[in-house]
Write a structure and sequence with these properties.
protein tyrosine phosphatase activator activity, Serine/threonine-protein phosphatase 2A activator, 383 residues, PTPA_sf, PTPA_C_lid, 45% helix, Phstyr_phstse_ac, two-stranded antiparallel ribbon, mainly alpha, 4 strands, Four Helix Bundle (Hemerythrin (Met), subunit A), two-stranded parallel sheet
């Protein structure tokens, strides 16, 4: 027989027969009908059924926006000084899974690090960059070191090449910075803390990008914040230095990073594309929004005013970031930077600042691809 075989039928399941008809009897079996039950809780948190009780919401939402909304605003903490006897060691990478991230965020030391970042943000609140502040010898030394790194860029021109990203001359710059890193650390360390150089150097050298990939992103920026936190735990920089750490040190660091990005065409590391806050940075938006809290005239929507940007970018980090983005990206701002455009609709800078702190915790500090490169030693312990 050449009859074609009927296609195989799917195996019957417990859910194969439904009485979804609004009529009183089922057209298939003649049995009484009923409306379907409400859908089960969806893993897509953009839709949460009204009947679904809030107490049973999933604990780890996959939707980033929901995660940010539910995250408490991080609070400032006083840095806990590292107590002798010291056991300095070369810090290592440990994080490799989401479980490690959960463990990290339950760690007192890491909570103290995040509290330090918030303290830096609070120290610059309602201050212009040029406002007078306490500038210690340690702060001056750090600024001098970054100035030397800027000079290295001028001495190492980009190599001729046609690739859009990743000029190989950056590796020469990175090698030179790395070879001088220990001597830079010793400029900051008293005789009893000289052994700390072995732990400080890796944080420092990882603050300026990756030499093999020739890229830079928020993970490297976080390493720079971690390096400053290590200095704070060693009491090389103190609380009275915090405003200067933002207005003098971080501003100089940002100057260096922009020069490196433009000169050597560093690739954005782990960029979210147009849906990210910025291709390279996050912290200057946090510090910059804090600067503008309670400003009489400038509101979040002021980023669209070219006169304001031209006149005040040198005094406010947030505005300087907007100017830089407009310089390197062409087209409509709302198209190449939709997230920053959305933020400009927030009513005040305090809400912007608290939202960015929450976003930093969720989008940077809770992401395995970023935090897998974070280092742990005796100063920032894995607990």
């Amino acid at each position: 027989m050449d009859e074609k075989e009927a296609p195989p039928q799917p195996p019957p399941t417990a859910f194969a027969h439904h009485h979804f008809s609004p009529s009183t009897t089922c057209i298939n079996c003649g049995g009484p009908t009923a409306y379907p039950t409400p859908p089960p809780p969806s893993s897509n948190l953009t839709y949460i059924p009204i009947r679904f009780p809030a107490v049973n919401l999933p604990t780890n939402p996959t939707n980033t926006k929901e995660a940010i909304m539910r995250t408490p605003v991080p609070q400032s903490q006083k840095v806990v000084p590292l107590q002798p006897p010291y056991s300095f060691q070369t810090p290592v990478k440990i994080i490799s899974s989401q479980n490690d991230i959960v463990r990290l965020h339950s760690s007192p030391t890491f909570a103290n690090f995040l509290g330090f970042v918030v303290s830096l943000s609070e120290s610059i609140k309602s201050h212009k960059l040029s406002d007078p502040c306490h500038v210690s010898p340690a702060v001056c030394t750090i600024v001098d070191v970054i100035e030397k790194l800027i000079a290295f860029v001028d001495e190492i021109p980009p190599a001729p090449q046609s690739a859009r990203y990743g000029n190989v001359a950056y590796r020469t710059w990175h090698d030179r910075m790395s070879s001088d890193a220990e001597s830079f650390m010793l400029l900051l360390l008293s005789p009893d803390l000289r052994d700390a150089a072995v732990e400080l150097v890796p944080y420092f050298t990882d603050s300026f990008g990756n030499s093999s990939r020739i890229d830079y992103g928020t993970g490297h920026e976080t390493n720079f914040a971690a390096w400053l936190y290590c200095l704070a735990r060693l009491q090389i920089v103190k609380e009275e230095d915090y405003q200067a750490l933002v207005s003098r040190v971080f501003v100089k660091y940002l100057e260096l990073m922009r020069k490196l990005q433009l000169t050597y065409s560093l690739e954005p590391a782990g960029s979210h594309g147009v849906w990210g806050l910025d291709d390279y940075h996050f912290l200057p938006f946090i510090f910059g929004s804090s600067q503008l809290i309670d400003h009489k005239y400038m509101k979040p929507k002021s980023i669209h005013n070219e006169d304001i940007l031209e006149n005040f970018a040198s005094e406010y980090l947030y505005l300087s970031c907007i100017v830089f983005i407009k310089k390197v990206k062409k087209g409509l701002f709302a198209e190449h930077s939709p997230m920053l455009d959305d933020i400009s609709g927030v009513p005040n800078w305090k809400k912007v600042n608290s939202g960015l702190l929450k976003m930093y915790k969720v989008e940077v500090l809770q992401k395995v691809p970023i935090m897998q490169h974070f280092l742990f030693g005796s100063i920032i312990k894995w607990e």
